[in-house]
Design a protein that fits this description.
The protein is an alpha+beta fold. The protein contains 8 helices and 8 strands. The strands form 2 sheets. Strands 3-4-5-8-7-6 form a 6-stranded antiparallel sheet. A two-stranded antiparallel ribbon has the order 1-2.
Length: 260
C-alpha cells in the first residue's frame, strides 16, 4: 500500500483546494512548523509543493490573515503572527456571562429588525397564538473586521417592545430583555452542521456550500415561558461552543442527547 503524501490535496468534487490548503497551513502553524515571527513558504514554493495555482494559494493565505494568524509584509513575505488556540479554557462561566463576553468582544452590525409573523416552527416553539406577530432581529457579529457569526432571533412582541435597531447597536438582545424584567431560566440548545447558503456565505465571507455550525437556542423565563428563539451560524475555525454538564445532570436529560 502506498503511503499518503501529506503534500497532496484531495481533488474530488466538493473539496475546495484553497480550504484544504488553509487547513494544512493552519495545522502546520499550530504544530510549530512555522513559529511566531517566522516566514511561511512563498507563493511559488506552495504552488509547487501542493500543485495548485497562485489564486488557490492567495485565497488560503487570505483566510489565515482573516483569522489573524499571518501578516503579509510587502516585499518581505508572509509572517506568522499568532498560533491557533490549542487549549480550551475551563467552562467556569454561565450563559449570561458568556453572552456578555461575546457582546463585549465583538462588533455588531444590525441587518434587520422587524415585526412579522414567525416561521411555523419558531412560532410553535415560542408558543405564539395563531396570527400573533413577533419581533425579528438579524445581526452580524465581527471581531477586528472578520465576520464571526450571524444571529437570527425572534422574541414575542410583548417582551420585544424595546428591541430596535438603535438599541441593538448599544446593547445585546439579552440585555434589552433583562431590562424589561425578564429573568432567564431553562435553556434548550441544538447544534447541527449545515452548508452555507448564498446569504450566509456572503455575510461570513466563506464559499457557497462551506461547512457551518448551526446552533439553535430556545430561552425561557423563570415562569417557564419561552422568550427568545435564536439561530446562530458560524464557522468552526472562528468560533466554538463551550458547554459544561454538572455531575448531577449526567444521567438526566439535562445533559443533553445525541441524535442521528
Amino acid at each position: 500500500m502506498d503511503t499518503p503524501n501529506p503534500s497532496q490535496l484531495r481533488r474530488e468534487p466538493g473539496t475546495a483546494l484553497h480550504r484544504q490548503l488553509f487547513m494544512v497551513l493552519r495545522d502546520q502553524i499550530a504544530q510549530g512548523a512555522y513559529g511566531v515571527g517566522e516566514l511561511i513558504p512563498a507563493e511559488d514554493a506552495l504552488c509547487a509543493q501542493f500543485d495548485v495555482s497562485r489564486i488557490t494559494v492567495r485565497r488560503a493565505v487570505s483566510d489565515l490573515e482573516h483569522l489573524g494568524l499571518v501578516e503579509k509584509r510587502p516585499g518581505r513575505g508572509t509572517f506568522v503572527r499568532a498560533v491557533p488556540r490549542a487549549q480550551r479554557p475551563q467552562p467556569s462561566f454561565g450563559l449570561i456571562e458568556s453572552l456578555g463576553r461575546q457582546a463585549r468582544e465583538t462588533e455588531v452590525t444590525v441587518l434587520k429588525v422587524e415585526t412579522a409573523l414567525a416561521p411555523p416552527t419558531v412560532a410553535q416553539q415560542l408558543q405564539l397564538e395563531a396570527g400573533a406577530a413577533a419581533v425579528h432581529a438579524v445581526r452580524l457579529r465581527s471581531a477586528h473586521g472578520t465576520p464571526m457569526m450571524v444571529t437570527d432571533a425572534w422574541v414575542p412582541q410583548e417582551v420585544g417592545r424595546n428591541v430596535t435597531a438603535t438599541e441593538l447597536q448599544k446593547r445585546a438582545l439579552f440585555e434589552i430583555l433583562m431590562a424589561e424584567g425578564i429573568k432567564f431560566g431553562r435553556v434548550i440548545q441544538e447544534v447541527t452542521a449545515v452548508a452555507a447558503d448564498p446569504v450566509l456565505a456572503g455575510l461570513l465571507r466563506v464559499d457557497l456550500g462551506a461547512p457551518l455550525v448551526r446552533l439553535v437556542r430556545l430561552l425561557h423565563d423563570r415562569r417557564k415561558r419561552p422568550v427568545q428563539h435564536i439561530t446562530i451560524h458560524f464557522t468552526g475555525e472562528r468560533s466554538r461552543v463551550l458547554m459544561e454538564v454538572p455531575a448531577e445532570a449526567v444521567n438526566t436529560m439535562g445533559a443533553g442527547a445525541d441524535r442521528a
